[in-house]
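Escalation from tier 1.

The customer reports that the assembly of three entities below gives different structure tokens on two consecutive runs. Tier 1 could not reproduce it. I'm attaching the input and our single run for tier 2 to review.
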Amino acid sequence: MFKMLHSALAAAALLALTGGAQAADWKPEKPIKLIIPFGPGGATDIVSRILAAKVTETIGQPVVVENRAGGGGLIGLSAVREARPDGYTVLVTTIGFGANPALYRHKKIPYDPLKDFTLITRTAEIPTVLVVPPSLGINTLQEFIDRAKAKPGTLSLGSAGYGTVNHLAGELFKAETGIQTIHVPYRSGGLSTTAVVSGEISGLFATTPSALGHIKNKAMVPLAMGSAKKIDTLPDVEPTAKLIPGFDVPDWQGLIGPAALPKNIVDALNAQFGAALKDPEVVKRLSDLGAIPTPSTPEEFVAFVTSEVKKWNSVADRTGMKAEN
Amino acid sequence: MDLLGNLWIGLETALTPYNLLYCLVGVFFGTAVGVLPGLGPVATIAMLLPITFGLPPESALIMLAGIYYGAQYGGSTTAILVNLPGESSSVVTALDGYQMARQGNAGRALATAAIGSFIAGTLATIVIIFFAPPLASIALKFGPAEYFSLMVLGLIGSIVLARGSLLHALAMILLGLFLGLVGTDITSGSERYTFDLPKLADGIDFVIVAMGIFGVGEIIANLENESKRELITKRVTGLMPTREDWRRIRWPILRGTLLGSILGILPGGGAMLASFGAYSLEKKVSPNSAEFGKGAIEGVAAPEAANNAGAQTSFIPMLTLGIPSNPVMALMIGAMIIQGIQPGPSVMTDQPSLFWGLIVSMWVGNLMLLALNLPLIGLWVRMISIPYHFLFPMIVAFCSIGVFSLSNSTFDVYLMAIFGLLGYVFRKIDAEPAPLLLAFVLGPMMEEFLRRTLLLSRGDTTVFFTRPISAIMLGVAVILLIIVLLPSIRKKREEAFEEEAG
Amino acid sequence: MSLIRSPKDFWSGLIYLVAALFGLTIGSNYSMGRAGQMGPGYFPIILSSLLLMFGAVTLVRSFIVPGESVTRFALKPALLIIGSVVVFGLLVERAGFLVAMFASTLMSASASSEFRFEWRAILGLVLFVAAGALLFVKALGVPMPLIGPWFNPS
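Tier 1 run:
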């Protein structure tokens, strides 16, 4: 039923289509499976579904989204690692991809991000913002740091679990400032947001879409952006990087495939997804969601993930962060 | 008063032909995925989300909401007819509903569920209209300490679910808690009892346990004495509740609605606790408590009412505070954000047609569900009167497909096979699975909240008694425990006296 | 037989004990923490210990207090039904949905004493498999190949 609706919509869009991106010499001959290593409904899932719908119009074959949730994304990753490198199985990964080697290094490292996979393109990123409950009585980033230093171990930072953007941003913040905060993990992003509103925790590096409404309603106080740049929807909030140079932890997403994916396939997929990310309608949909398109070349993506791996290993050195306490 | 004006806006929005159509589409899809085991509203809504981009926000939310409560309805149908609870809240409906079905009263059970849900939905809508903002603040008053105490209360209450000995009920609760430990420990991030299998890292899905133990286990037990077993009787009594039934379900529906309306507001396990709580309550207060577990109509009416009332009031924190009380509400927030609406207190004032339109549509949707489902009852009843040896292979197949579709993994199918065997063994030794299932769901949350409380209070355990709501609930739990224990203690003593006398 | 006076209690007790011992053995690897700051091992150890106690009591009681006996274990239906679920799991991604569903449903159906292997049964089965394919694979889009890589080695 849904699938029929979907294909009807896709067909209608195809008719309206005047000209798609010119693909490189690889043309898919059967549907492409786009694996999302999380359950349906999250930000990664929704962004990827928008992209999949757009690429379906131009690549000539359906791009079918398949959710393979579990193990903090590890189940989806291992499904792709074991898939044939033929371009028909790809995956959208997130910040945990580059941080897992650091998080799991005290036991068996689950995978090598650069050797076990082929990186195709970055797709989008969602800015983050450090928010605190109004009841805390803190209004600036400096006050937060001062309070944490004056009373070590009294302030807490929430997260949606180990290895999520909230947790990682908090760990980097701790490593850079040398403050002591309690990490309070929740079952989901929604629950950790609620905990800030109710004042249960003293802060959270939240993704901006989940926090905007609460900030507008004065149920949360924004202290600083967790990502490098200011955003239009929060014009008065300075980035953390102003105080801590180089601080940049957005919730990024990128498209990857199995290792040894042939160059022509990588280029074709890079071109198709890159074009979709520049499509005005897609850009609008993503920005409604609070996501920023970040198309890149495969080489740029490799450089980015290399720096991510280095960053989180260095954080783990300094804070002793790991996936298991 | 302003309220009437608001209601008028709501009616105007909900009753446009377009929105009526989207509401119908929503409840229809919802019922369909609810009836099919394994498929749930979360996956359905996520799949349909991109389609709603092009709709006006009111229509999109009306349709998605319809899927949600439609699925609740559909889920109870399967629970009653074939003992397959596809969602945690329909486990208790299966207890007495399935027994009624076996006795040839499937029609009355289904009608009771539908009518009970409708009444509860209507009352809960009224509750939302009048009390949404004050009730929303309850959700924020519940910190981890309160949740922990609520879970304790829920677990103690679940002992009432059991029919047999207290010892076995407690042991089954422990087994359930134990099963719930499998997976990643939220608080520390370490994996427990996962044997390094990534597929177990997120724990075992409730549906796998429920379908294995209830569905597959039941089928094997039924095949045991196939020749002797009375198949589901052809002698189907009336499809509608009798006058006597009405008298019996009146108060259970109202009590269930009340309990469900309150618990539905709480983020987390609220909705499920509501149906378990309503059942336990009826079993304690009902004059027919001996019939519970053997096909008591109150045992269908109360949890269904609670379940549906909870589904409605779970919209309150979402609409008024922008706080999701369950995964479906989180998706609804996503849908609103896509439409450019920031959920929160301003929705009520900035988007009155959305807010009130959605609320009125919930009542309209409930009416549609009633109209849709009452005529279907005859069809359902005819379906289960087809010979069992045709029916059960289909149920097994649906279970396998449903469990596979949870996360597209055959591992889950094998797990269900194990739980199916376990379910059959439980039947052989008269162990009751309902307390096990409740504990399975509550256990991880209980541990999580306990440890989070202590993390935030830095090891101070007195918070459970100094925070008033938490203290009250723990007090009620103690009283409940005494009430439950007393009869068996008294009985033991009487037995002892008798022996002495004899 | 004569020693065990309540077989149902005996077997329940045994199940509790096995689960408890299992929980204790594996759980002892997890860090306990303190009551104030519990580690991941705290809950499992407490639970397993309680279960151990309940198991022991139940087991001892089964030798003292008379109770019901356990009826015969229906081996054939149990094996066929559980087997049919496993067969579905084994085949669905390899041989494809059509074959998996056909084999699995045939196997579970044969658990019934009413089952006759005849053309009407097979016809019904084929119709059922086709309806399942339409509903789950085509309409709902559950990602199961209709024809698996076994028959389609590209």
